[in-house]
Each structure stands twice: as C-alpha cells, then as structure tokens.
Design a protein that fits this description.
9 helices; alpha/beta; 11 strands; Carbamate kinase; two-stranded antiparallel sheet; globular
Length: 239
C-alpha cells in the first residue's frame, strides 16, 4: 500500500509570464521549481498540470472566427507542452527528476500519457508534468487537472493562484471581498464561484477529490498544504 502523500498542483500559464503578461519569466520558473523541490524532498509525490495562457488561449484565438475553436484549443494544448518542458528543465536544474507526459503524441519531446507509467514515476520520486490538457478540444486545463488527479489517485488538487483562497468577489477589485475558508462542491457550483470551471468541480465532486486554492507566491505554502495546514488557503470538499 502506498504510504507517501500524492498531490497534483495546477498552475496557470499566466503565472509563468511575470509582469510582462506573456512568455516565460525564468525567475518565476525557478521559484516554482524550488517550491516543488521542497515537496519532493519531504517525500511527497507531486504531479503538475500547467495551462498555456501565457502563450495562447484557445478561446481567445478563436474569438473572431478566423481560427476555428477546435484548432484554437489544439494550439492552446501545444502551448501547455512548451510550459511543461520549461518546468521540467527548471526542476532538473535543481536536481529533481521530472517527466513530461503529453495527451497528444510527440515522442521526441514527451512521453505519451499512460496512467500506470505516471504512477510508477511518482512512486520513484519523480515529478510528472501532464501536458496537452485532456487531448480534446473544449476541455480546460482545470478539467485536465481534475481528470489526471483522479486517474493517479491523488489525495487533493492544489490550485496555485495569485490570491490566498476563494473570495465572494474579486479581491483585486473589491476591498470588501470576504474570504471563504471552506465550501462544498455544490456551493461552488450553485453560487458560480469560479474556483475552477464547472466541469472540473463536478468531476472532483463525483470522486470526492478536495480542491485547495492558495497563493503560489507565498513561500512554503504548497508544503504546508500538503501537510494538512489550510489556514492560508480555501478548501472545496464534501465537508
């Protein structure tokens, strides 16, 4: 029986962009690698899903009709592969073994996603970075994160954002925004609280998979959460 904790961390592509709003900021990349390294050094098995919004978003690419939505989404999937390779490189720079597994076959760049192989990598202490979303258009990387977390039997999804949890409204726009420490899946869906998209929340609910929302830029936060300290985060679960 597996004794070590296993978590999946979801990063947005925009988080890699830094102040420029596009591309990859290597300082942020190194920071993310350091935070993941802390988890690995503390015997926590780590999987990662990263978005591609710092390069291209499928919905945005297809908004004027010149590019079809399906093609736009595939372009977005390719963007996540670029980000996944960047995270792999940063981790290996830190001496942490990592593997990229892609939902779209591209043998020269990444392994093809195979759940048993992913689990074996994790058991050996390697970080597994899942790229190319679910491999299907019309599904977000949030949904991919929930799907992969369920497949590898992770104990939780940690959604690493720029805020320290879930609020009743945008804390960057409203000073009176109130942090919600705990909520159920049904509350998140009913109140349209955008923890993740509705498909991913529903999938998490069906599998009783907790979603923890935290500020990725607070050093040591991921390790504290992995060890059960949610004091500076929000958790969505069955309660």
């Amino acid at each position: 029986m597996r004794k070590r904790k296993r978590i999946l961390v979801k990063f947005s592509g925009e988080a890699l962009a830094g102040k420029d709003g596009y591309g990859i900021d290597t300082k942020i990349l190194k920071y993310i690698a350091d935070e993941i390294e802390d988890l690995v050094r503390n015997s926590i098995e780590v999987a990662v899903v990263v978005g591609g919004g710092n390069i291209i978003r499928g919905v945005s690419a297809a908004q004027d009709g010149i590019i079809k939505r399906t093609s736009g989404d595939y372009m977005g999937m390719l963007a996540t592969v670029i980000n996944a390779v960047a995270i792999q490189e940063a981790l290996e720079y830190n001496g942490v073994y990592a593997r990229v597994q892609s939902a779209i076959k591209m043998e020269q760049i990444a392994e093809t996603f195979i759940v048993r192989r992913a689990k074996r990598h994790l058991e050996k202490g390697r970080v597994v970075i899942f790229a190319a979303g679910t491999g299907n258009p019309f599904f977000t990387t949030d949904t991919a994160a929930t799907l992969r977390a369920t497949e590898i039997e992770a104990s939780m999804i940690v959604k690493a954002t720029k805020v320290n949890g879930v609020y009743d409204k945008d804390p960057n726009k409203y000073k009176d925004a109130v942090k919600i420490d705990e909520l159920t899946y049904d509350e998140a869906l009913k109140d349209n609280i955008k923890v993740m998209d509705d498909t991913s929340i529903a999938l998490a609910k069906d599998n009783s998979l907790p979603i923890v929302v935290c500020n990725m830029f607070e050093k040591g936060n991921l390790l504290r959460i992995a060890n059960g300290d949610f004091s500076n985060a929000s958790i969505v679960s069955n309660k």
